[in-house]
Amino acid sequence: MTTLDLAPKRRRLFDGMPLGIVISLGWLALVVVVAVFADLFAPAHYTTQDLTARFRPPILFGGNLQHVLGTDHLGRDVLSRIIYALRTSILIAVLGTLIGAIGGTLMGLAAGRMRGIFDLLVMMMTDIQTAMPSLLIAIAFLAFFGNSIPLFIVLVSLEGWERYARLARGQVISEQSADYVKAVEALGAGPRRIVFRHLLPNIAAALVVQATLNFPGTILLETSLSFLGLGIQPPGTSLGLMLGEGRNYLLNAWWIAVLPGIVIFMTTLTMSLFGDWLRDRLDPTIEREG
Amino acid sequence: MSTPLLQARSIARVYETNRGLFGRSAGVRAVDDVSLQLDRGDTLGIVGESGSGKSTTGRVVLGLEPPSAGDVLFDGQPIAAHGTPAWRQSRTRMQMIYQDPLASLDRRLSVAAQVREPLDIHHIGTVEERDARVNDLLQAVGLSQSVTQRFPHELSGGQRQRVVLARALITNPSLLVCDEPVSALDVSIQAQVVNLLTDLQAELGIAMLFISHDLRVVRQVSRRIAVMYLGRIVEEGDADDLLAKPEHPYTRALVSAAPSPGRRMADRQMLRGEPPNPANRPNGCAFHPRCPVAIARCRSETPELLDLGGRLVACHLAAADAGLAPHAATVPDRAKTQQVEAFAP
User: Fold this and answer.
1) What is the ipTM of this complex?
2) Could you report the per-residue pLDDT of B314-323, keeping only the tens digit for each?
3) Which alpha helices (DSSP H) does chain B contain, by range?
């Protein structure tokens, strides 16, 4: 009876966490706190220019305390810009992931529940989405419709929605053959109650894991588009935009591009690690020692 | 004579199976020409081995699956089409108990939430009334207050089946279909749950269709027993009488296979072979390939379910023994009327 000891396992979810995961979670918490309270953390505003203090290196490379992580080609404080860029990038990635996850999940739930022609249509759309890189779709839309933040967020949310749809559909189809779903149906429950009260909570774990694994991809899509100049426009800032701007000065002032790059790298890596760990943790078929 | 609570008239259930991409689809007759009748407060046991169609019969009479032929009357009215509001409303009057109580409970909802769910679905009573009713029902099935906030996996098998029972009874149904309700439980727990079922049934006056492969359990619960083989009823009669004097060779084999203390194993009449594939049903009597006393006629002619003095049997030999003329016995009209009379209380 493996299912019998599910609850104690769930309660011990965060016991015995590997050090790597603790560090990952710490980094992610730091990122979120800094992004939310950017105004408190940033020593300067991200648009404040000081043309007399251009290309100052970070403190360990001959810089001074006034600009801990140096300045860029317009004399703007890199630390402040990273902090505000983090806010923009995280906001877009979180919103994009949420929209993609909710939309994809709803489509998958409906497809798995209704089957028939609607199921075929949804699956066809997921196949199209899989076959076309979301970066390409985003570039095409941004080129045609111009740049706006809402459109940008919607386009970013296209990254991975089809994975939620496929996952939710498959899970619903397997889950609704379970006796408890049949029992609730036999009690006279309507489709909404069956889907949202019974099916969704039972398949939520897999979807949450999918979201954590998908989140880095969303950040990368946002940064790629901004890097290409199709995303966030100056004077706004995002991690990808900083990377794009710093690229021109990579030889003489590497910190402008490398520091935001490291932040992107760390955030996506820690999120992936956490997602991997969470998947193993929530999957009862993977045996754990202890 | 009042109308019976449940009446199934020559119901059949055919499942289509596709064989390969270009293969012709074949129909599997899981249930074939089954007629049942159940009065208020009465219990009918259905026994048979795996694949005999007993569970499908239960699902069809409950309206969970449409019959491919024939019809089901509940309280004299045909059951509304599956999924319609009228059908949903009718769920409060008939309920089902499943084999595996853990699987039939949502593992993410507390006991109290699941037991009160039928009331929530059908908007019965106020919130306080619902909670009070949940407590009453949990008490009635012998569960203490302490389990209300527990989750299904934290309960024992017997407790879980009690929760399922409480959920089924909370809307005060008139019909309960129990599909192998105790076969997933330990023998000691089986007795408790069976006793609880019979007690509650007597107290609440619920009619019960009790499906099982375990003759001892069925005998304890049922007033009448129907034996199914390959989608058809082969014998039906008063529970004690049927088990004491089985007429159909298949029932004889079943009764003989059930272990009973003090009887030597060597005397048992063992069945050979397996039940045939329902998709490839033998001609004539479906039981003839395994029947120890089959005659030539069994291979060509399907026996009708005939009334042999309070007992319905579908067997040429039993009919001949009872002195029924073979050709007269196959007149369907006569068989039908006899059947209805036999069911009258």
Assistant:
1) 0.78
2) 888 888 877 6
3) 54-61, 85-90, 111-115, 117-122, 127-140, 157-169, 187-204, 215-221, 239-244, 249-257, 296-300, 316-321, 326-329, 332-343
